[in-house]
Amino acid sequence: MSLKDTYENDELVKQxxxxxxxxxxxxxxxxxxxxxxxxxTDQYYSRHDPATYKKFLAALGYPDWKLPYDVxxxxxxxxxxxKKIPARxxxxxxxxxxxxxxxxxxxxxxxxxxxLVDFEGGCWASRGRDLGTFFTCLTLExxxxxxxxxxxxxxxxxxxxxxxxxxxxxxxxxxxxDEKLDNVDQLLFESEFFSLMVGHFFVGFFHNQELDSYxxxxxxxxxxxxxxxxxxxERYLPQKQRFLEKYADKLK
Length: 252
What we know:
Layout: H1 3-6, H2 10-24, H3 37-46, H4 50-60, H5 71-82, E1 89-92, E2 101-103, E3 114-116, E4 123-126, H6 127-137, E5 140-143, E6 146-149, H7 156-173, H8 184-207, H9 219-246
Helix pairs in contact: 2-7, 3-5, 3-8, 5-8, 6-8, 7-8, 8-9
């Protein structure tokens, strides 16, 4: 079964939602100091050396390339906005992209085939981080180091289906379920914000490449990185504007 077929199968999609809900409620020894996702991304981006980055772009063959927005300004907006979004803190997976979600041949003890892997990014953070990452990364495909945009951002109807399944599972796992916080509209709010922020992590990674970067050794891979940033960059500002209009009252 292809990845495209997998995520067009509603039952398998719902299995991912249930898996994330269970992971978020695992009782494991983990530092519960909150990780502010956007602040961490800002720190990562801010480590890059502008002079080295300029030389890297020239060596890559794109000396004048830039994003259609000021990254630092958007990260500052993101850090300020993150503080306005009430959210449950959970044990996040930290990198809930579809390449970290495998399909088993034999169902597990839950009767499910979808399986999460690669937990090194796990931390105590907003549940919206994983949900937003999953939604954004559904639009990306990777073949080795080659990365490209493979489809449009999932529809609100599709995301509502996913989030409702997530909440149905959460309700079975906790006695702390609160309809005011644990509802689909609230999860849409949280996940749509973090969907915007995911692209900034890719930007930080790109800006921190050195002059011995693997991207300078493979023109195809280098071009794919530029293309993915162009695609995410073009989508970012319209998506942000829709977010601001939709949630104007919540963001006051």
